[in-house]
Amino acid sequence: MSAESTEHAISTEAIEDQDDVLSEVQDSGQDTDEGAEGAEGSEDRGSSASRLEEEGDVAADYLEELLDIADIDGDIDIEVRNGRTYISIVAEEEAAGLENLVGKDGEVLEALQELTRLAVLSATETRSRLVLDINGYRSERAGELQKLAEDAVESVKTSGEAVALAPMSAYERKIVHDAVAELGLVSESEGEGADRHIVVSAD
Asked: What are the tens digits of pLDDT across the range 44-56?
């Protein structure tokens, strides 16, 4: 499977549609219904944990089959934390073709993540918010986003003018929102679809 064919297999706008509602609620600091679980809270959490483990297994099977078809070596790790399933494809040595599953600016990775979510939906009839990483790309990108947020905050503090950042996925916007909040400024998401971006301001 080439990077180009994977990249165009599905529009990344689907990722925005699925994640925006969940991410924007978190971005704006609104509470979810977790605080209203009541007496059934423990049972619900247990059920949720089982569901996340199930979607992790389904996702791993789907990705293993894809790697076999593409003849790409890689190990799959599954972790459940903070109400999400995290899937990582890693290789002890740089595997030929694995970088193609990331693509330019992570575009292929985003498309592959959405395909994996759809595979989980098909198997479990439950929408998935799983996060897929390949060779630590997202961890490295998180560091870049932290630096981006710090630079934007410094610019706003120096000039007093709002700073608009480049468009990015809902997952990446959430990282920037959190970083800006920790640095004491305000950030909002603006725009639609592929043009959705963050604006950092003093208020």
From this structure: 556 788 899 999 9
Specify the CATH number of the domain 141-201: 3.30.1370.50
The model's pTM = 0.68
Measured at the alpha carbon of residue 130, what is the angle toward residues 9 and 118, in degrees to the nearest 5?
Answer: 40
Angstrom distance (rounded) from CA 121 to CA 103: 24
Token readout for 115 is 């395909």
For the chain, the structural domain boundaries read 3-135, 141-201
Q: Which of 99, 125, 123 is nearest to 112 (CA)?
A: 99
Q: What does the DSSP assignment read for 137-186?
A: HHHHHHHHHHHHHHHHHHHHHHH---EEPPP--HHHHHHHHHHHHHTT-E
- pLDDT of 38 > 50? The answer is no
Q: Which CATH architecture has domain 3-135?
A: 2-Layer Sandwich (3.30)
CA distance 116 to 90: 16
Would you state the structure tokens that stand for residue 59, as one six-digit string?
């996702």
CA distance 163 to 93: 40
135 token code pair? 């060779």
